[in-house]
């Protein structure tokens, strides 16, 4: 971080000399110089993405806009890998990346639909590739300055500046992995910004711009970069995130659910079914034995089984917590589950196995 901040300070000093000469009256504040420097450095690695569905259209003279998606991405390494949002390339089979005046076809390396991210790769000369450094989203503070660069409404390399408005936000219809994880910002995010970087004042990516609220203003949302970092090696190596089969199913325990069924704990994960022959069965995890239907037509609850109250020593908060832990896990690791069973807590070691390919 010290080296990065040193680079930023040198960049600001050089920029101040370049734009504020002795013959000019224009003066910039330190914050303005920081904004200009971050933009000049990062924008070189921000790309414009067009994804199409190949095939004939009704009229050769018109463009079938329903088969075209547009958005933003950014280069992450000198191999030409580009991060973007999955929903931009979803169901598309032709992807074009524009970097300045250059337009090249992109290859799809991997996807993580549950995180709404996709990894592309382009072939460009090394001297034309300017990776945008990845930072961390772990210590983001409300009020912290952030910058968004993207192709808002098709207008390339548009910059907006704002602050972190909140962290740990949840959006309707988000996947369990993204629950309570979004970064909220008032830096303007518009259609076309999706997939672009959200940067801190050091010029590092802290999130990927992903969503807006249609009926609100100045409320944009970004996926934390730390969550994305956890699956990048898998996307490069396998094309998808590692997702082990745990061998059990169940329901998240809430206070209302605990009161309704008279459960002994107010928060945790109720193990309802343990799959025969699974590692969970071998580890000794126990499912329920009493079946209680709450809604006609819905799957009934299986009560009486183990309740997971902590994972690797951390109190169980939500199913999203478990889902995100699994994203960063590897085959051969063990999950240490603290389980409430018949009036006492015990430890269950659950090994993680390789993914099974199912077609």
Describe the structure.
The chain contains eight helices and 21 strands. Helix 1 (2-19) crosses helix 2 (30-42). Helices cover 19% and strands 35% of the residues. The protein starts with a helix and ends in an 8-residue tail after the last strand. The radius of gyration is 24 Å and the shape is elongated. Strands 5-4-1-2-3-7-6 form a seven-stranded antiparallel β-sheet. The protein has a six-stranded antiparallel barrel with strand order 8-9-10-13-12-11. Strands 14, 15, 18, 19, 20 and 21 form a six-stranded antiparallel β-sheet that branches. It has helices at 2-19, 30-42, 86-89, 225-229, 232-237, 255-261, 279-283, 319-327; strands spanning 46-52, 68-75, 81-85, 94-99, 102-105, 107-112, 117-121, 145-152, 155-169, 182-185, 197-199, 205-212, 220-224, 248-253, 268-274, 290-292, 301-303, 307-311, 314-315, 334-341, 344-351. It is α+β, with helices and mostly antiparallel strands and 359 residues long. The longest helix is centred in the N-terminal third of the chain and has 18 residues, at 2-19.
Keywords:
six-stranded antiparallel beta barrel, Pdz3 Domain, 35% strand, 21 strands, 2 domains, disordered N terminus, alpha+beta, 359 residues, seven-stranded antiparallel beta sheet
Brief overview:
The chain has helices at residues 2-19, 30-42, 86-89, 225-229, 232-237, 255-261, 279-283, 319-327, and strands at 46-52, 68-75, 81-85, 94-99, 102-105, 107-112, 117-121, 145-152, 155-169, 182-185, 197-199, 205-212, 220-224, 248-253, 268-274, 290-292, 301-303, 307-311, 314-315, 334-341, 344-351. The protein is α+β, with helices and mostly antiparallel strands. The strands form four sheets. Strands 5-4-1-2-3-7-6 form a seven-stranded antiparallel beta sheet.
């Amino acid at each position: 971080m010290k080296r990065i901040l040193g680079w930023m300070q040198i960049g600001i000093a050089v920029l101040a000399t370049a734009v504020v000469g002795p013959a000019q009256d224009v003066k910039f504040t330190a914050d303005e110089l920081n904004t200009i420097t971050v933009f000049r450095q990062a924008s070189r690695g921000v790309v414009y993405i067009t994804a199409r569905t190949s095939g004939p259209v009704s009229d050769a003279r018109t463009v079938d806009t329903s088969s075209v998606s547009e958005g933003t991405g950014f280069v992450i390494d000198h191999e030409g890998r580009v991060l973007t949002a999955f929903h931009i390339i979803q169901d598309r089979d032709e992807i074009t990346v524009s970097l300045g005046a250059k337009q090249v076809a992109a290859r799809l390396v991997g996807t993580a639909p549950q995180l709404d991210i996709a990894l592309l790769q382009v072939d460009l000369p090394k001297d034309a590739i300017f990776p945008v450094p990845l930072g961390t989203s772990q210590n983001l503070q409300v009020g912290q300055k952030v910058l968004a660069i993207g192709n808002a409404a098709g207008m390339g390399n548009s910059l907006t500046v704002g602050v972190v408005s909140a962290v740990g936000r949840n959006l309707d219809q988000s996947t369990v992995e993204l629950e309570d994880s979004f970064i909220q910002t008032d830096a303007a995010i518009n259609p076309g910004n999706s997939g672009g970087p959200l940067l801190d004042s050091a010029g590092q990516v802290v999130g990927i711009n992903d969503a807006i609220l249609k009926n609100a203003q100045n409320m944009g949302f970004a996926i934390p970069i730390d969550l994305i970092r956890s699956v990048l090696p898998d996307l490069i190596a396998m094309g998808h995130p590692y997702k082990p089969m745990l061998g059990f199913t169940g329901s998240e325990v809430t206070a209302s659910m605990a009161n309704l069924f008279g459960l002994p704990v107010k928060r945790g994960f109720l193990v309802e079914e343990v799959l025969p022959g699974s590692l969970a069965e071998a580890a000794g995890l126990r499912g329920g034995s009493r079946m209680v239907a709450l809604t006609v037509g819905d799957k009934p609850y299986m009560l009486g089984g183990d309740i997971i109250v902590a994972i690797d020593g951390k109190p169980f908060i939500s199913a999203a917590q478990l889902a995100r832990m699994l994203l960063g896990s590897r085959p051969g690791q063990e999950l240490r589950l603290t389980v409430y069973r018949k009036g006492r807590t015990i430890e269950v070691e659950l090994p993680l196995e390789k993914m099974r390919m199912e077609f």
